[in-house]
Structures are given as C-alpha cells and as structure tokens.
Amino acid sequence: MELRLIRHATFLLSFGGVRLLVDPVLSPAGAMPPIDNSPQPRRNPLVELPINESELTAVDGVLSTHTHRDHFDAAAAERLPKELPLFCQPADEEKLRGFGFRAVTAVGARAEWRGVSFARTGGRHGTGEIGDKMGPVSGYVLRSPGEPAVYIAGDTVWCPEVAAALAEHRPDVIVLFAGAAQFLSGGPITMDTADIAAVCQAAPAARVVVVHMETFNHCLLTRPLLRDYLERTGLAERVTVPADGETVKL
User: Fold this and answer.
1) Phi and psi torsions of 212, nearest 5°
2) Which are the contacts of 214, defined by CB distance < 8 A and separation ≥ 6?
3) What is the mean pLDDT of each run of 10 residues along the chain (250 residues)?
4) What is the domain range of residue 206?
5) Using only C-alpha atoms, what is the Rg of the chain?
6) Domain total for the chain?
C-alpha cells in the first residue's frame, strides 16, 4: 500500500487495489477565512495543493472522517464527481447527499466495498465543553487481503475511544491527525506530541504516520517541532512525518 499526503488531512491511499481520497479539501491557498477564535489569523489553506487537482478527482472512492471545512470543503463538494462512492459517518450522510453525491454509504459499525472492509471507530475532537461543541468525528480501520491493517484515527485527541480502537483492531499502520489545533481558549482539539507518544506506547509494533499540520491557521504544532520531539524521545524511527506531496510506502 501507498499513502500520498496532499496537505493537512487530505491524502491518497492506494490500498487493496483501489485508490481512495481521504478528507478532500481542494480550495486554493487563501480561499477561506481563518478558523474563528483561533491563533494566527491567516486565510486558509495556508499552502497550495502540491499536485494537479485532476489527480485528486480521478479516484475510485472517497472516505470522509467528518465534514468540518478543513476536511471537506466547498470546492470538494463542487468538483468531485457526484457518482464517486463516498463513505462517511452516519451524522454526515444527509449533508453529503445534499451536495449531490449519489453513492453515499454511511458506515455504522462496518462496511464492505471492492474487497476493502471499513470498521468505524470513535474519538473525541477535544476535551470538555469545546470537545462537546465540535460534534461527532470518526476514525476508520481498513483491511484488505494481503495489505496491512490501517487505522485512520481522524480528528481526535488521545482518549479512551482511541485506546479501545488500538486494543480491538491492532493495526499495523496508524495515521494520526496532529497539529495540536486549538482555539484561543481551551486545550488542543487534535493530537499534540504527548498524544502521539501515547499512541506509540499503546501500539508498540505499529508504524505511525502523522499528518494534519501547517495548512490551517489553528494548527500550532509544526513538522520541525514534531520531528525534534520524536528525535529527543527516541520515536523518530517509528514515526513518519511526510511533507506535502510525499508518498510513503507501507
């Protein structure tokens, strides 16, 4: 299998003979306003797509962890072919059908498609009152014969739901959404360095890939900061931090 990071949480996953686009955000740099009530009030996305948009629309299917605008934007809703199979959490099915997508599958607990199985997992998009306000988010564990089991955690911090997913599914590869995104008050709503370390400790045999950085203004954890932390804690050999456009073979 191959994972090609596009930017933020948008990536291409070649897995089980299919090509999946995860959390599509297709807007050009600066097309969206800053995330409200957050640091670094710069327009989003902060960077351009590193590849031609046509490569992102010529896929076999789409997987959506949730539909916050940094994970499924208006440009994706407009430009992705409406007949593409689109897998999502139940809370987002009506919204995605409202965009005109005709082949939406809401993954309750599990779904099967072209030899790929999807198991939906839980998470917490922050803690306390802020976490409650962020709404439901999901992760997914993907399996296919001859491929490593892949856990896409989604927008979550380290929490009992993530620990349970790791214990139940024992993934070979874990994709974490980091960036330590946060608002002007409250704690991070996506993983920070301590959360990533907790995942590595709970799944010591897994390969970890960290994305969701340096693209939206509310994300404060950068790649250089994370890489420095990984070196200091002895995790650098286990954790991959790809650049935008980089392909990771797993």
Assistant:
1) 75, 50
2) 46, 47, 179, 222, 223, 244
3) 98 98 98 94 97 94 98 98 98 98 98 98 91 90 98 98 98 98 94 98 98 98 98 98 97
4) 2-249
5) 17
6) 1
